[in-house]
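Form 12-C: Joint structure prediction
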Amino acid sequence: MTKCKKKKRQDDFQKVKLKVGKTKPKADNATNINFRTKGINLTEQLKKDANAPTTHRKLNIKDLLSQLHHYSGTVKQGALVGLRELLTLHPSELDQHLSSLLSEAAAVFTDKDPNVRMSATRLLRFIAQSVPAERTSPFFPLLSAHLSCAMTHIETGIQEDALKVLDVLLDHYPALLAARPALLLNNFLELISHRSTGGGARKGQEGKGRSWALSVNPNRNVTGQQWRLTVLLRLGRFLQAVVEERRAEEGVACVSGDMFSVLNGQGGANAPLELNWEELTYRKGGFQVFEHSGAMPTPHSTFKLRPETEPGAGVSEGLGTGEAVRGFASTLVPLLLDVWVEASASDRSKTDSAHLLTPDAMSLMYQVLSILQLLRKLAPQREYQDTLDVWFRSEYLGDFKQHFMKNFPYGNLDTPKQRRKTDPKRSKQSTTIPGQTVEPLALNVLLCQVMVSMVTLSQREGQAQEPDAEWLMPLRGFVQETLSSGAKLSQRHLHTLLETVWRMVITQRSRAVTEDLLQAVYVQYQQMNLNLQTRTLLLSFYSRLYLQEHNHTHIARSRVLSRWLAALPLQLSQLGHRNPALSDRLLLSIQAAASRGNKALLNSLHTHACRLYDPQEGSVVLLPAESQQRLVQLLYFLPVMSQGLLANLSRCCTAGRVSAGLAASLIRIIHLRSSLSGWSVGSQDMTLRDVDYISFLFSTLTGFSSDELATLQEAGDESVLPPSPLSPLSLYPTPLEQFTHHWDVVEEVCHCLETLGSRSQCFDVLQNGICKNLTGLAVVPDSMAAGLLRAVARLLDLSFLPSEPLLRFLSRCCLSLLSLLLTLQQDTASENNHKREAVWGACVAVLSSIPRLLRLVLQSLRVKDLCEEELPQLAQILSLLLQHTALRNHMLANATLLQHIIQDLTRYCRGESKEQWMTDLLYCYSVTMATHRGNLGLRDIY
Amino acid sequence: MSAPMEIVLSADSAGQLWNCAVLELHSGTNLLAYRGGNTSSRSLTVLNGEYILGAQLGKNFINVWEIQRKDQLQQKIVCPGIVTCLTASPNGLYLVAGIADAIYLWEVSSGNLLAILSRHYQDLTCLRFSDDSSHFISGGKDNLALVWSLASVVQLDPSHTPEPRHVLSRHSLPITDIHCGLMGPQARVATASLDQTVKLWELSSGEMLLSVLFDVGIMSVTLDPCEYYLFCGGSDGGIFQVSLCSQSLSRDKTFQSDNEGNQVFKGHRNLVTCLSVSMDGTLLLSGSHDETIRLWDIQSKQSVRSINHKGPVTNALIIPAPANMFLPDSRPGIPLPRFSRHLNPSEQGEGVETGGVCLRLAPHTQSVFGDGENTKVRVSELEEEVRTLKKVNKDLYDFSTQLLTKPS
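Section 2 - Result
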């Protein structure tokens, strides 16, 4: 048994003898490694999902989203890339899955793998590009929660990438981000500093001890300075977004930020209703003026019972109140100062002169300053901004002076080029920081702006200004030098500079300073070839300054300003029609100054008035309608109205290049200027002589200048209708448009003449005018003839007897017009209707108001002079006159004359063919006579 | 005949028979006429229901009548220049006049000249108070209408010139007329201008609510008491009615053809210079340069009555009849003091102040922008002050009752 066991054991465990120098026998279970492996990546699914669109890997959106929870970084990254691909191919997926997409993508902001984070940022940018802000807004709390989670993450890499996410959001959803500023602001602070915990005791000692201190994290792969720069850059952009959002909220366009871009910054939130009387009368429905039926004042009311928010809210409650902004500023500003001090200290070591800065330091300072500037603008309301400025001044003026002003102005340090090449790491670093190239000019300009905002409007204590003067000197010198150097400045720099000048002028209240600064700006203004925007900017700067003058005597007395004003009319006339927008700007300023009775402007306006109101190439005919109206309104303020100007204006009215409505208001304004109107213009009463005024009215009434009339007389027969016995004057048919225009003007002139005072005298003047100037004409425009008849009919006083020559001329006009009427009636085009009615109305009115005129007309109808074709025309005229009820009685008074004419007519028309027109005439005649006799008969009976 | 409720007060620039006449509103009978001089445009005003004041046309004084003594000119207030417009505050405490381009503000009780406001650049055309006397609006030939808060204007603060609360600067030609509606600081203000527009503003915010562009320059404007309609008197003699509330009753109105005629009151032949609506909003009064005043029924837009004057009408207004007007024996509550012509009478050596105390508010200097602790201190200070004041008041009361009840 035992033997057997032994044997067995030996069989099982044979001892392998290993000997030195012999190869080791292979073990039985040794793996043969003589094979090659090849990996098979199943990146694509085999199955095809017919329902949902897929990527090229045949993954649909659900798969991809679920892959985001995978532990492996590559899978996650692949999923993110896949998502981007899917969304580009099928944008409709974005709409359906936006909620889950955003929440999943945001969750990987804090992923450990930098590649995943980068892909997530890319995906977010892609989504942001294609989804508008209002659709993202429901998911935005989630996004910002993840964002602040990433920003406060303990790993520096995640923090850095969080800033990139922030960039994306700032690019696309600034308003959404700015709506909840509180949390993010704290995050920013924590990125560059830490809250010192044990400050309680110190706080008590120092009063306002600083609970935040700058921190440096040595683990970062960039230097502390560069890291701060990147953070500050984002902070600046974020604050900018907040400021802009606030401005949009308030709807106030003229917060000092863009004070010059909107000239009359009254664009309140609720736009006023602008109505036109004509529209109003023809419109069916009414309109609503008062909101909430007028029971509540608009939100812009300046009466407030109590402040809307409780005071004392800290940073944590956002930047809604002035207190909050101040709280935030008191934390941030010391940090900013520290940042700059550290940077400048390290910079100092590299350079000899403190004026010269390395590019890094310069961009850092630029960011610091722009954040300071933005902080100022953060104040929720205008009044808080001033208090905030005062606070800034009291807290930090000393620090600012010490750290910023000592080495002003700053210049660029020329870093030798080869040094960069030898130091590739450095150059790489500097390229990674965005926006690092800041010109020294931009920096200096911004510094000016920040420092000048420190100067407060302290009128009460004039002595307190003195210390300011010392540090303001270099600033002022710099501003003056930059502006007057004649170099072209970019739009943004100029804007900032102008704001600085504005602030200096308002606060300094010294005439010499104002003069110098304005002169420097004027140098810029006088430059040639400025583009429209810059020109407008400068223009609005001056005009705003002028509008502000009332409470600043030093501005009002400025010589530069008045020189600028005086140059405006010339500029306007030189500009012509080339740039209507700019002309409009100019006009606004001119109008404001004219209404204030500015002497310099009015004189210059007077000098250039004839050019401006030239009927051929003056601004008044070249500019668009709105500017024309302004120009016309400007007439009211002109100091003296010379004869030449009135002649020009009369031509403007009649030439048809201004609309009839505008011509009417022009006449009305001149009417108001005349002492005959009953409206006293003011101190300068006798500036429009009555003679000139009446001659203006008369030449407007005729509608044609004497030169034009003279050329008409000599013109050949091709343009005018030839005279005939039925039409003693040859009429010049004016185009329909001109006729209607002139007709409207005539109505207005008649109205002015009617209200002048004594009617008979007025008519006398008119009669003299017509007799002297017009009775000798052989060719008369039809619009003029009709207008004269109209005026005579309207102005005639019953007690006044018109003179014989006038009546003769009028009768000729009347007869000619009547025959014109017949030719007009032949062509039945509807556009001539108005003309026909006007001519007929004028004839009837004048004939019925002056019976003697009718008699003259009838007398001039000599049948025997007429040729055969004209007989029917005469008959038509007669029957027209007979048919009109207003004329019937007057016709009857001339019954014998009428009878003669009709007898002659019947004799001359050869009797053999009684034509239609003859029967008509005889019928009309007999009816008229019959009713007359009937009346007589009735009278006889009673 | 019982005393009329509302009367028409009218004046023309000729002033041949009388300076201004008082008419019964409904019958048009001439009740009274005040004689002496003539009155310039927009300068006839009733002070406190006891005096009638009117600026003399082209001269530098203001005529004053006691309201019950129609024949006799009571006083002439001599002013530094020609008065272009004049108005008294509805509570009868202040008098405001436009002289050239400056606004003069007098306190009626003492006659002191409280302020000269020269913010306008050209002559003034119109001055109006709000119905609670808290604000007044001035319009001038410099296209501006300014809203002034009376409280801030009368503040005694020599270093600080009063600023208007709002500058209404959207007109482009001179302002011709202003109307201030009811409801105190929440009122709506209508301004008319030669630039052919009428604009409606909100007094509290200074914002423009409405602008209506017409075909002619507008010389006068008014609102009815309910502010349903805006009436605008044109320079061609037409009076235009703009409906400010939408009427949704148009369901059964199909006949619209005479829509245009419906909204114009036609009758005057020259500038309509003054407009006024009666208290119940049914009658419209208009005065014109064609030397008539007309009374219109607003509902039917017909001229009810036309009354001829001897010259261009300068003032026509409907006012509730003052109680004293028809009681010949009544006396004004307080005699009218001498109105001073200079800002500080003591410095100018003109008129020695005797006994009167001039009470004017100092500007509010305390900044509210402070932390909680400061406010608390401030509040407690104020409470303390109130307590002291109450005590002083009580002492005064006790003293006077003692004095009055003492049998002597």
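Section 3 - Comments
The longest helix of chain B spans residues 372-405. Confidence is low (pLDDT under 50) at residues 248-261, 347-355, 364-370 of chain B.
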